[in-house]
Amino acid sequence: MSRASPNSAKLTSRWRIGCNMPNYRLSYFKIRGRAETARYIFAYSGIKYEENTIDIADWPNLKNSLIFKQIPVLNVDNIIINQSSAIARYLARETGLAGKSNLEQARVDAIVDTINDFMNMFPWTEKNQVVKQKIMEDVFANNIPLLLDGLSKLLGDQMWFVGDSVTWADFHWAVCSITLTNLNVDTLHNHPTLLALKERVEALPKIAAWIEQRPKTPL
Ligand SMILES: N[C@@H](CCC(=O)N[C@@H](CS)C(=O)NCC(=O)O)C(=O)O
């Protein structure tokens, strides 16, 4: 991969002086899933990385080699980082998207963790389709309204969830809300400000370019 300088004004000093840029390799399946927020950060900041798409046939071999047997993992100059939130948070800190103070960062983290709590309620790996459908409907009826009402309150009439500029919490919401609306087209009907935030993120030119070029997958 070429090692072009990242072009966001918010990058940390290491990036601004353009030296010692790590080699990044992101390993995940060919889905948005738990890697997409990190991909948005890469796209927005212009940092080059290698996308290591894991074919399902190759997964058992790679799985054996991983300490915690799960992906995504991010290889940073041969150091392996697991956990999608840790990966995205690290990239966000590196690129000025984590929040501008410790307090802002705590608010950003709380939003991401809350979204994840709710996304993890869905029975993603349930094999029985009847059971799966039943639980999905249950989560949409009984849990997702709490998430959406809460996020709407936090957003209020602001442009972004935290502070006066975009953070990875906004990216994470934009990513997860695609999955929510794919599962249930009515999800955002009563939450226009959350829909507008998703669209604001997707209209950022570098995010729009990434969305245009990424593989079209259901998840
Ligand atoms: N908490 C972890 C969960 C990772 C996870 O569940 N990964 C799934 C794919 S989304 C996986 O590796 N599944 C394959 C398997 O467990 O064999 C994270 O957020 O990274």
From TrEMBL:
User: What InterPro entries does the annotation carry?
Assistant: Glutathione-S-Trfase_C-like (IPR010987), Glutathione-S-Trfase_C_sf (IPR036282), Glutathione_S-Trfase (IPR040079), Glutathione_S-Trfase_N (IPR004045), GST_C (IPR004046), GST_superfamily (IPR050213), Thioredoxin-like_sf (IPR036249)
Write down the top EC class of this protein: transferase
- Offer one Pfam family short name for this entry: GST_N
Q: Which GO terms describe its molecular function?
A: glutathione transferase activity
Ranges for domain GST N-terminal come to 22-99
Q: Domain (GST C-terminal): give its ranges.
A: 101-219
Provide a GO biological process annotation.
Answer: glutathione metabolic process
Sorted keywords for this record are: Transferase
Please give the catalytic activity noted in the UniProt record: RX + glutathione = an S-substituted glutathione + a halide anion + H(+)
Q: At the top level of its lineage, which domain of life is listed?
A: Eukaryota
EC code(s) of this entry: 2.5.1.18
Name of the protein in its database record = glutathione transferase
Its taxonomic placement starts with: Eukaryota, Metazoa, Chordata, Craniata, Vertebrata
